[in-house]
Specification:
OB fold (Dihydrolipoamide Acetyltransferase, E2P), 6-stranded mixed beta sheet, globular, alpha+beta, 7 helices
């Protein structure tokens, strides 16, 4: 896979948004479910604060969700439009292998991005001190073997994952980059970048209407053709598969 950094400037644009600002404008929150109190009431962690909240659907203790926040008539916190975060986001967050946007640029602008990234993963794998850390770093290697770059990103002290896969679409006869991002402040985003000579077309799929509104306002002066749609069932390009650890080919 030979990535061109110029084709991915749009993704960097999305990720460079200050999470605090995007959370305030998109009204989207990242919550941890600490304990079930019964009758759809839960103790949650929100912005490092513990509080009780009511959910409009059953939640699983220990999982993390995206949610819109409002208040009940009794002024308690109400969670709506809940969407469970993917397990790969939750597991990779505990790993010490995180990258910055500058690291991402270095990887993508190298002569052979996959080789450069693979070498760094192997170095981190050799330094892993726990079974959990070894498993998390191995996920990055397994993803790469499946032709998907999975990159854990840390910026503005917020954690996200970014996935890319480049392929040639025989039907449209265009080179395209499929991508997926899980952003705590904006929710999951998927889509593609289609490249035809000097023309670049970008399609984004988001899970929340508030995210769509925020991105449309943030990208008014975007230099590429851009379409943003609200979609259900946005999934990572590569999922964690612990049973595949034995299939790693170094």
């Amino acid at each position: 896979m030979n990535f061109s950094l110029s084709e991915l400037k749009s993704i960097a644009k999305v990720l460079s948004t200050t999470p605090n600002a995007s959370s305030a404008l998109s009204k989207l929150a990242s919550i941890d479910v600490l304990k079930s109190l019964g009758k759809n009431n839960y103790t949650i962690m929100l912005n490092n604060k513990t509080l009780n909240a009511y959910s409009d659907k059953p939640l699983t203790q220990g999982d993390k969700y995206w949610s819109l926040l409002s208040h009940t008539e009794h002024k308690s916190v109400k969670l709506t439009q809940l969407l469970k975060m993917p397990s790969i986001l939750q597991s990779l967050k505990t790993s010490h292998t995180h990258y910055s946007l500058k690291d991402l640029q270095t990887i993508l602008s190298s002569k052979n991005p996959s080789t450069h990234f693979k070498q760094h993963i192997l170095e981190q794998l050799g330094k892993s001190s726990t079974k959990e850390e070894f498993s998390n770093i191995s996920t990055l290697l397994l993803s790469l073997q499946n032709q998907v770059f999975t990159i854990p990103l840390l910026f503005h002290n917020y954690f996200s994952i970014l996935q890319f896969k480049k392929r040639y679409n025989k039907k449209t006869k265009k080179t395209q980059i499929d991508f997926y991002a899980a952003l705590e402040a904006l929710g999951p985003i998927s889509g593609l970048i289609a490249v035809e000579q000097t023309n670049v077309e970008i399609t984004l799929n988001v899970a929340f209407e508030t995210t769509k509104t925020f991105l449309e306002n943030d990208m008014k002066n975007f230099s590429y053709d851009l379409n943003i749609d609200v979609s259900e069932g946005i999934e990572p390009l590569y999922h964690t598969n612990i049973n595949s650890l034995l299939d790693i080919s170094i």
